[in-house]
Every structure is written in structure tokens, then in C-alpha cells.
Design brief:
The complex is a heterodimer of chains A (about 120) and B (about 200).
Chain A (H helix, E strand, L loop, with lengths): L2 H17 L6 H16 L16 H24 L5 H8 L4 H7 L1 H12 L1
Chain B lengths: L10 H5 L2 H9 L3 H23 L2 H18 L10 H18 L17 H7 L2 H12 L4 H12 L4 H8 L3 H25 L8
The chains are: A mainly alpha (about 120), B mainly alpha (about 200).
């Protein structure tokens, strides 16, 4: 074994002593654990007690609902009432339209005239 | 002062990688923090003790490093660095600052004098003498050499990781550790030369 090898071996023995150095003191570990617990609990997201959830106002709740109700009622009324109504044809007749022309706009009116003819 | 008992880590925490534990710490998981303390402290303390040559200062260095780690935990960016590498980097910088702020305390007089050659002298030393000799010899090295030698030969880290910790190239690490080892051997032989020992490798 050369001198250099012997030196390397001697150094390795010293390094090994460094690796096997004593373990951390118990009190020191306990202090580090306490530090860790204190710092980590600060990271827990907590709800803000001052923060209030905004409640929806009366109008923001009921206005869309009442609008929807009104539109539904209007649609229902148009669906039921207008097929038997002569409101549209009377208006067109007033403008000078013929029966045949008004049939295109109010089919139920034309059908009722045909039924009258059959009778 | 009575300190709280540490929360015992569960098997899941013992199996989890460092990074997963740190993310859990960021979410307020105390068990994860305690597991990291258990894993990192012995290595960081060993490093700081060998570099600073003073146990009390080394404990302070570890405490500061871990406090920085807890502070960083909520913003830790996964995949950017290993937790242990980050800790070594922080403690290495801390040690460098400490060493700069004081005069080098060379205590080679405390090393038992080699009788014939370095190998036989080390062989005759007790474990405690070896540790004292190592610390005293390390104290004679320049700061960067000392850190590189400790990281390579005592912490047994790979050269690329040391390069990352010290923010230098792998080649620079190799150069530092190689020169460091030579300087360490020479420091240990210093007393021997005074006794008339002639090193035959030259």
C-alpha cells in the first residue's frame, strides 16, 4: 500500500468518525418540534369571523321570478285566447284586406267560414 | 421551560417523500412538520457542527434553517428543488456568514501527535480523538473547501447535489474536494513534520 493510499485510509477513518457523530440532544429536538408546531399551526387556513356572506336583496330574488311568471301568463293567454279571437282579422279588415288574404293571417277564421258554408 | 411533546408521526408520514410532507406543512399539518424535523435535523446538525466546529452554533444554524423552511412551506413550488438540498444550501450560507464574522480558530495543538505516520496515528486514536482531530483539521481549510469536503465525505452527497447546494459547477466541486482532502492530510501531518517525519510521496 502506498503512502497516499495509507493517508486516504486514515482520512476515511476520520470522516467515518464524523459520520458517526453523536445524535442531537433531546432538549434540542423538543425545541425544534415546538418551533415546528407553532409555525405550522399558523398555516392552517381559518375562516374570517368578520367576513359576512352577502345576502341577496328582495328585488334581486323576486324580480326575475315575477318577470318569468308574467311572461308565462302572457304566453298562456295568447295561446288560449287568440285562436278564437277576431282581433287580428278585424284589424286587417279595417286595413282593407280581403277574406282570402286574412285567412293567411288567421287560419281559424277561414275554417269557421268554411264550416258556415257547409251548414 | 416545559416544551410540548412532539406529535408522533404516522406510518403514512414516515413513508411520504420530503416534498409531500412540506406541502402538508404548508396546509397546517403538524405531524408532517415533526417528521421533517426528525429526518433533516441529524444531517443538518452534523454538517453545521463539522463546518463551524461548534455544537451550540451548529444548533442555532439548524434552528434558523428549519424556521425558514416552515415560513416558506405555504409557497413551496413543487419539483423545483429537493427539500434537503434547499436546507443544505440555507445552512451552508448561514455557516459561511458565521465563519466570515470570526477569525479562524485553528486548534491543531489539540490533535494527538502522530508517532510514525498518519495512518498508524489515526489507528491509535479513540473515536473521540478522531472527531477532535477531524474538527481541528477542517478548521484549517478555507470555508468553501471545508464545506465541499464535509458535504462529499461526511454527508456523502453526490457531486451534482453539492454543486447545486454551493451554486458552482460539478468540476469546481471536484477541485474543491480534491484540494480539500490534500490540505486536510497536510494539516494532520503538520505536527509530524515538526517531529522530523519526512513524507516520502514527494
Amino acid at each position: 500500500m502506498t503512502k497516499r493510499d495509507k493517508d486516504a485510509e486514515a482520512l476515511e477513518a476520520l470522516f467515518s468518525a464524523g459520520r458517526d457523530a453523536e445524535a442531537p440532544r433531546e432538549e434540542f429536538m423538543a425545541q425544534l418540534m415546538a418551533d415546528a408546531a407553532a409555525a405550522t399551526t399558523q398555516n392552517i387556513p381559518s375562516p374570517d369571523p368578520h367576513k359576512t356572506v352577502a345576502r341577496p336583496s328582495f328585488w334581486s330574488t323576486w324580480l326575475p321570478i315575477s318577470g318569468l311568471t308574467a311572461a308565462t301568463c302572457a304566453g298562456l293567454w295568447i295561446g288560449i285566447a287568440l285562436p278564437h279571437s277576431d282581433f287580428g282579422t278585424a284589424y286587417l279588415a279595417e286595413l282593407g284586406a280581403t277574406s282570402a288574404e286574412t285567412d293567411g293571417f288567421a287560419p281559424s277564421f277561414g275554417v269557421s267560414m268554411l264550416l258556415e258554408d257547409v251548414e | 421551560m416545559s416544551l410540548p411533546k412532539p406529535v408522533r408521526s404516522s406510518q403514512d408520514e414516515q413513508d411520504a417523500p420530503d416534498e409531500a410532507l412540506l406541502v402538508a406543512v404548508g396546509n397546517g399539518d403538524v405531524r408532517a412538520a415533526h417528521e421533517l424535523v426528525t429526518r433533516l435535523t441529524p444531517r443538518l446538525l452534523s454538517h453545521a457542527t463539522r463546518v463551524l466546529g461548534n455544537r451550540a452554533e451548529a444548533e442555532e444554524a439548524v434552528q434558523e434553517t428549519l424556521l425558514k423552511l416552515w415560513k416558506l412551506a405555504p409557497e413551496w413550488r413543487q419539483g423545483e428543488a429537493q427539500v434537503s438540498t434547499w436546507c443544505y444550501r440555507v445552512i451552508a450560507n448561514y455557516c459561511t456568514d458565521r465563519l466570515r464574522s470570526r477569525r479562524p480558530a485553528v486548534a491543531l495543538d489539540g490533535i494527538p501527535e502522530p508517532e510514525a505516520d498518519l495512518a498508524s496515528a489515526v489507528e491509535q486514536m479513540t473515536e473521540q480523538d478522531r472527531l477532535s482531530a477531524l474538527d481541528a483539521a477542517l478548521a484549517t481549510l478555507p470555508d468553501r473547501q471545508r464545506q465541499a469536503v464535509v458535504l462529499r465525505h461526511i454527508e456523502e452527497l453526490a457531486n451534482p447535489e453539492i454543486a447545486s447546494i454551493m451554486d458552482i459547477s460539478v468540476e469546481a466541486v471536484e477541485s474543491l474536494t480534491s484540494r480539500g482532502k490534500r490540505a486536510l492530510a497536510n494539516a494532520l501531518k503538520g505536527k509530524k513534520d515538526e517531529l522530523g517525519y519526512v513524507d516520502d510521496e514527494t
